[in-house]
Amino acid sequence: MLALPLPLVLLLVPAVLAADASYRTLSTASNPDWMMKVPDSASLASISIPGTHDSMALFGGDLTQCQENFGASGDTLTAQLNAGIRMFDIRLRVNEGNTFTVHHGAVYQNANFDDVLRKIDQWLNAHPSEAVVMRIKQECTGDIGSCADADGQASFVDIFDTYRNNAPAAQRRLWAPSVQRNSAAPTPTMGEIRSKIVLAVLHGAQGGRTDQYGLAQFSGWNDGNSAWVQDNYNVPNTGAIATKRDQVRRFLDKTNAGDQSAIYVNFCSGSSLFAQPWQVAAGAGGTQGVNPFLLIYLGQGTDVHAEVHRTGIVMMDFPGGALINKILSFNARL
After folding, report:
1. How large is the average pLDDT for residues 26-31?
2. Which Gene Ontology molecular-function terms are recorded (predicted)?
């Protein structure tokens, strides 16, 4: 019998998807109107916000799925919103007819940008006290493992502007200062953005920020880390999950000790061929995952580590209900 290398054997073993308070239990959290209690005067930078990395990555198997599947065509966004998620990471491919479809790498996620806008529009209509922050990325690089944009179409930014100017849901919901090509927006207060979608940044296919779209603070947010972003997304193997945990912890400490007028975005996600998204989130091979680690860390007091008085925006794969609730609990101080 042919002996397979250990990493390949591990890839062939079915994923063990045991849910717990920190992992794959999104629906156990119910926080549809939590921003109602946030004062209008509160800066977006002061608010602790749960978010999802690759928010609509539901299909393609363990290598590409990043979130629990509550339905295609944007239904999963509704479930996330009801749980309390308020930042989305949306990855788009240029499709025929100068339209956007949602992708994770080469895998179409059974949704279009129209679905994203429509679902958020409907939800905000029912929950006008709330606001959504969004990161948009041009997903297709044309490289192996990625997708390629459709030929003969307008540029990514021209298509985005067409949605902004013509899609009724976009006209109602996009916070205008954040979606201008030539002028970045200041960090808003809660009162300025209720019932709106705030574009944090628009990234090109190679990760660089595109023009001036988004918030001025994120002018240096390129691929991976920046002054205000921790996104060490390459976790080469399951043993390296411990390093990823430490990166999340250190950035959380920076969020609390650093500039309190700035928004910090902390990605808990990471992956590679030998450390799939669910493994980084939940743990694998005896290594604790980022999600359970973070839930424990946020629950500890100053007798264990430096005070945590805000979390910034925490971008997660497969978040559990208790972890979402814990992040939101820090807003009681506002």
Report:
1. 98
2. phosphoric diester hydrolase activity
Residue 1 within a domain: no
CATH assignment of the domain containing 66:
3.20.20.190
Q: What is the pLDDT of residue 224?
A: 87
Q: Give dist(CA 140, CA 297) in Å, integer.
A: 36
CA 290 to chain centre: 15
Give the whole-angstrom CA distance, residue 226 versus residue 211.
17
- How far, in Å, CA of 281 to CA of 28, rounded? 17
CA pair distance 307, 252, nearest whole angstrom: 10
Nearest Cα residue to 55 out of 70, 44, 34: 70
DSSP-assigned letters across all residues of 122-165 = HHHHH-TT--EEEEEEE----STTS--PPTT---HHHHHHHHHH
CA–CA gap between residue 131 and residue 175 (Å, rounded): 10
CB hemisphere CA count around 72 (13 angstroms): 10
Tokens of 72: 């295609």
> How many other C-beta atoms can be found within 10 angstroms of the C-beta atom of residue 152?
8
The reply to whether 196 falls in a domain is yes
Range of the domain at 100: 6-333
**Does pTM top 0.85 for this prediction?**
yes
The answer to whether residue 67 sits within a structural domain is yes
Q: Could you give the 3-state DSSP secondary structure of residue 29? A: coil
User: Structural domain tally of the chain?
Assistant: 1
List pLDDT tens digits, range 181-202: 999 999 999 999 999 999 999 9
Alpha-carbon 188 to chain mean position? 19
Average confidence (pLDDT) over 72-83: 98
Helix (H, G, I), strand (E, B) or coil at 185: strand
